[in-house]
Amino acid sequence: MDISQLQKKLRLGIQNALKNIPRKVPPEELPSPLKIELEIPKDYKHGDLTTNVAMRLAKNFSLSNVKLAGAIKDELCKLFAGKDLGRIVSRIEVSAPGFINFWFSREYLHNLLSQICKEKNIFGKNDFGKGMKVNIEFVSANPTGPLTIAHGRQAAVGDALGRILKFSGYRVSKEYFINDVGTQVELLGKSIYSRYLSINGIESEFPENGYHGEYIKEIAEELTKKYGKKCIEESYGNLRFISQFGVKYILDIIESDLKRFGVFFDKWFSQEKLSPRRIGSALDKLKAKGYIYEKDGATWFKSTSFGDDKDRVVIKRDGAFTYLAPDIAYHLNKYSRRFHRLIDIWGPDHHGYIPRLTAAVEALGFDRDSISILIVQLATLFRNGVALSMSTRKGEFITLREVMDEVGCDVAKFFFLMRKLDSHLDFDLGLAKKNSLDNPVYYIQYAHARIASILGFSKGLGDRLKNTTYNPHLLESPASELLLRMLCQFPLVIKASAKMLEPYKVIDYLNELAKVFHNFYTKHRVVSDTDLPLTKARLTLVSGIKAVLANGLRLLGVSLPERM
User: Fold this and answer.
1) Long-range CB contacts (< 8 A, 24+ apart) of 6-14?
2) Which CATH superfamily is domain 138-268+377-433 in?
3) Fold of the 436-556 domain
4) Whole-model pTM?
5) What is the pLDDT of residues 501-533, one digit of tens each?
């Protein structure tokens, strides 16, 4: 029985137990549907799974939290007696302020280890997504400059989340939205044009709020190299051509950097595809539903009907679309491609934009819960304890490429994922470059490499080891049991990460697993030619640990070194 099936049976058992406990109110007055959460306790002393159902329902039964938890525990013990669950769950206890904690039997843990060693790289895979088609749009940096570390963090998050969701039964499509029209692109063209004129010996005034930085000069030099002085004339056609030249040049850099970072997209969607006709068609759909009106010469979307704090302009007085209008058309386009769920990953400067977009999705007739907008907080680079400043416009920024050059792709990706999405990230370059156990990514990768070394060393025992019978009951030390209990949690962590859209949970788990393994290794010799049965048992255990570490790192997009 896998962990998901076990959870279902435990929930059913708790529901049946509740039916046998006298209650103050009739059954129909209990919460419906009755949600029973089974989670991994924060402290291993509290078992393998825990539920707070007693605390949520105590008032309905006119009992204290602890008394109701105790009553549920007693009923479960009766229900499980002599059944499969009775052999799987070896102990049930109540802890304050009303948790019910479950311990798995050693037999179940031993069987799970065998399952891990058999399934290897698919262990932890689940059907939580049930084949649902999901679109994840992330990075989507304006093509006006190279990717910064802020974009790098979004790339790491989006890619890891895509892998986790795919592992959890979703059909995932990763998408990059190219904002290649509008004021910023025009400003990019003017910035390049100014540098282009200077290269060709013509003095020019650099545009106010233009894009600085060496990359603008490099684009201007490439333009000169390819076209000479053919673009000297300051015309609309020339400026548009230069803007498009700059966008393509920068997009090539972005795609190259992402490829090196191990991040690939299934679709690159250009905003230019959203013609005024398509945008107008999307707004007409809202108008037909009564959510578009005219006021003060502008066209407004009635977003307050769906919880926004004020209505939003979609067409300005001069007839130009606001940013919201093409975004509405773009998301309508996604739904037209038959995605069941949309996930947008944005930077913190877009937080206030969420209510108006979710309002538009709902106004178009789609379920509000079909779109999730995740805000990824900024990352600050530190060198020798000093924060490095960044401004794309002023040309004072650290690119993702520079971070990869300095610390490597694995470390960069791992560090970007080390905090929850809504937490600001401090990226310590000094720590990231350390090849020691102080470095968190090194710490986990070293556990994987150390086990690979152990398994390689064990081959020296040859047929003696092959002919030794595997006896899982030799894994009786507290350290071995803790490792077994941790291994059984991996599928739950993956499912929780997919449910909460939070890759950090995988890192947190891998870090703890590596810690427990390193502690085990310092206390227990794995390979011994004087005790082959114990050696075989421990080699099986570390093989299972290696498989789980590998699966976790793979989901994060981090490599699996065999030697370090």
Assistant:
1) 6/85, 6/88, 7/38, 7/49, 7/492, 9/84, 9/85, 10/38, 10/49, 10/85, 10/89, 10/102, 11/36, 11/38, 13/76, 13/79, 13/80, 13/85, 14/51, 14/53, 14/72, 14/76, 14/100
2) HUPs (3.40.50.620)
3) Isoleucyl-tRNA Synthetase; Domain 1 (1.10.730)
4) 0.93
5) 999 999 999 999 999 999 999 999 999 999 999
